[in-house]
Amino acid sequence: MAETIARYILGTIFLVFGLNGFYTFIPIPEFHPFMEILVTSGYIYIVKGIEVVAAVMLLTNRYVQLSLAILTPVVVNIAIYHALLDERNWQITPIILLLTGYLLYTNRQSFQHLFKPKNQ
To answer: 59 and 12 in contact (C-beta within 8 Å)?
Structure first.
């Protein structure tokens, strides 16, 4: 039950903020210079597209492990961005870190093979 709630919350967060990258329905403060580069280059649309696709996978309970594998580097980058570059709107960072960490923990059997050394 807790895993389902965490999955829905994380999926909703990434769906809302991912879609906001395409259709600005939540006001965005003035961009940090790094974010300005991402926006003007169009790279942000790739990131936001990945967020939306992964969010849909979480919300539909399909390919949850793949969604977590895709979102984990995004979450880490969000945390680093807010810790080092732009502290505005940092409040969402601990939430997504905790939710992602919890979901990774509850799905740890799916990722255990990634941490086994290769047999020679």
So the answer is: yes
Rounded to an integer, what distance in angstroms lies between the CA atom of residue 47 and that of residue 70? 11
Q: 34 near 81, Cβ under 8 Å?
A: yes
- Of 49 and 26, the structure prediction assigns the larger pLDDT to 49
Distance from the first to the final alpha carbon of the chain: 41
Element holding 9 (H helix, E strand): helix 2-20
Structure tokens at 88: 């505005």
**Concatenated DSSP letters of 33-48:** HHHHHHHHHTHHHHHH
pTM of the model: 0.88
Tell me which residue has tokens 């740890």.
108
Residue 120 has pLDDT above 80, yes or no: no
